[in-house]
Amino acid sequence: MDTKEYCNEAVELLKRLIATPSVSRDESRAADVMEAYMSEKGLKPYRLKNNVWVIDPEYDEARPTILLNAHIDTVKPVSTWTRDPYTPTVKEGTLYGLGSNDCGGGLCSLLQIFRIMTSLQRNCNFIYLASAEEEVSGKDGISLALPELPKIDVAVVGEPTGMQPAVAEKGLMVLDMVAHGVSGHAARNEGVNAIYKALSDIEWVRDYQFSKVSKFLGPVKMTVTVINAGTQHNVIPDECRMLVDVRTNELYTNHEVFDIIREHVGSDVSAHSFRLQSSHISLDHPLVRRCVDMGMTPYGSPTLSDQALMPFPSFKLGPGESSRSHSADEFIRLSEIEDAINKYIQLFDGIQI
Questions:
Q1: Burial class of residue 133, CB neighbours in 10 A (0-12, 13-18, 19+)
Q2: Beta-carbon neighbour count of residue 331 at 10 Å?
Q3: Share of the chain above pLDDT 70, in %
Q4: Which residues sit opposite 167 in a β-bridge?
Q5: Which of 22, 71, 214, 219 could make an S-S bridge to 27, C-beta 3.0–4.6 Å?
Q6: Rounded to whole angstroms, how far apart are CA atoms 178 and 197?
Q7: Are the beta carbons of 7 and 338 closer than 8 angstroms?
């Protein structure tokens, strides 16, 4: 097969996936499609729940291993779609459909790259993983599959980046903050208003500047996004609950940021999870250097991906544009898929890591 045929196969597989609804935690039919396609092509797929992967048929534990990863799940379609999100439609070289851009283009391109690279002489092992529950950072997604894989040295994640290497990615931590007061009658100047006690903490979250600023990701960003307090107009609220969205850069761990916040606010603070860490890869990594030699420009990504759950170096590189993700009438251009496959081949051909 020549490269053009692999591109055509990527597009046809993507059409099948678009026509197979795969909203997070309901990806079994899409996993069936991926598993069946791998078997059709003579590969030996492994599956754990809705994660499907294939290992280099000439795997050698003495060689370093590159993981090629993308996710099979999608968000729910928004109400403003003007097309059927589950009907793949090609018009003037553009493929429309839910998941086409995020991240079906990368998912299907990287599978073809696995097929191509494992047919060539190579210095590395390749593993391809189609992971589930990425859009919700679910427990049955990539974190379930990774322990089943051989040791990974580096990962390339096929999220839409316009085929520019996203060498750093912000982490996410969601906090509950609770300010406590004392209830009383609003007419009698009694009690301690928990809303008023929360005001100073809200102002601190708004104004505080973390000292370590990332070259690629900028500063840590905190935003109060939800506030709940009070029961009725004439009762002083004795509790004010706040939800805080925290986007960390690679210069802090989530635990470090949490400790700084807890030291500065009067409210009780608890984290939903610490697991979604910021990620980054050295600009001196051979794959990143190869990207730069190919004319690509490294950058930092504000959006979260399965990278947050990878305990090894990784970066995002995939066809499509992040700005199209989660939007109505989502699309990817067929030329972007072809360009991605050609660039992936150039990236991996003869690479030594």
A1: buried
A2: 20
A3: 100
A4: none
A5: 22
A6: 10
A7: yes
DSSP letters, 186-199, are TTTT-SB-HHHHHH
Regarding beta strands 221-229 and 94-96, do their DSSP bridges make them parallel or antiparallel, or are they unpaired? unpaired
Q: Tell me the two tokens of residue 214.
A: 């990332």
Nearest residue to 230 via CA among 245, 244, 218, 240: 240
Kindly report the length of the chain.
353
CA atoms of 142 and 135, how far apart (whole Å): 11
Nearest alpha-carbon partner for 276 in 301, 311, 251, 241: 311
Q: Which two tokens stand for residue 141?
A: 């997604």
Alpha helices in 56-164 (DSSP H): 105-117, 142-145
Cβ-contact 329, 350 below 8 angstroms? no
Q: What is the pLDDT of residues 234-266, one digit of tens each?
A: 999 999 999 999 999 999 999 999 999 999 999
Residue 215 DSSP SS3: coil
Strand, helix or coil for residue 176: strand
In angstroms, what is the C-alpha Rg of the chain?
Answer: 23
Contacts (Cβ under 8 Å, ≥6 apart) of 272: 173, 174, 175, 176
Strand partners, 157: 69, 316
Q: Which strand (E) or helix (H) includes residue 286?
A: helix 286-293
Q: Classify residue 33 by burial, with Cβ atoms within 10 Å: 0-12, 13-18, 19+.
A: buried
